[in-house]
Specification:
three-stranded antiparallel sheet
Length: about 250
């Protein structure tokens, strides 16, 4: 049980990772633990107990099937107010849920909710995810799967629960981390794969209108791998060979 004085519950003071488990194994666990450890440093939390985090994560999923493992670290218990106690005792938890692969392309809208690129939290998976919740709710209300979030400067940032990519001619583009973007595990792998194929892959700042001229759009995260986009507001996107090639590498249907 999480006590009612837990700072993660009260203030969103903590971080999480969502990892794909296949038949009880978590192929990218070390990359997720690296990011979680770096996030603890960024938030001024005690160093991540990596061995405990790994053990909890690996114990969470069922031995067979495809599952999403959520690993959460909070700043532990604290008194009233914003200030952390003098000695922070973090709390680690891991849970798992079956996660069926998503076979269909995504439909998107541009969300009204903005990403605050000036906040360090915009580049971390913190427990304060309300802006993402609101963006996703707006997408669902509009009959779409996901919402593209712009930052306060009007630049493309991400989807509510995924990194964003688009294709222009022979180039692959994605919003730069400085735009308020999480350094996604799959995002990094996609960029590395494209560059290994000698495809120009750029991390840039671009306004929302840039997507209107794209030849293809897709989303990435650890659970969906690469998910092509078929529609953004009124624009229809046909399947793109590069997106399909990347999907074949990073999609895990098992």
């Amino acid at each position: 049980m999480i006590p009612l004085d837990d700072r993660g519950l009260l203030l969103g003071d903590g971080l999480f990772e969502t990892m794909l488990a296949l038949d009880g194994a978590i192929p990218m666990i070390e990359a997720h633990l690296d990011r979680l450890a770096a996030g603890c440093v960024a938030l001024g939390l005690p160093d991540l107990d990596r061995e405990m985090a790994r053990a909890l994560s690996l114990a969470a999923p069922p031995p067979t099937g495809r599952a999403a493992v959520r690993l959460t670290v909070t700043a532990g218990s604290g008194g009233r107010g914003l200030d952390r106690p003098e000695q922070v005792v973090p709390r680690l938890r891991a849970t798992a849920a079956l996660s069926a692969p998503i076979e269909t392309p995504a439909t998107l809208i541009i969300a009204q909710t903005r990403r605050n690129e000036g906040s360090p939290a915009s580049r971390l998976k913190t427990l304060a995810y309300l802006d993402n919740v609101l963006a996703r709710a707006q997408a669902r209300s509009a009959g779409a799967d996901e919402a593209v979030m712009l930052n306060n400067a009007g630049h493309l940032a991400c989807a509510a629960a995924a990194n964003l990519f688009w294709i222009e001619g022979e180039r692959l583009l994605t919003p730069a981390l400085a735009c308020g973007v999480l350094a996604g595990i799959t995002r990094a792998r996609v960029l590395a794969a494209a560059r290994s194929w000698e495809i120009e892959a750029l991390e840039i700042a671009a306004d929302g209108a840039r997507l209107a001229g794209a030849d293809g759009v897709f989303l990435t995260n650890s659970l969906i791998g690469v998910r092509p986009v078929s529609r953004l507001d009124g624009r229809i996107f046909a399947p793109h060979p590069l997106a399909e090639r990347l999907r074949a590498v990073f999609f895990s249907p098992a």
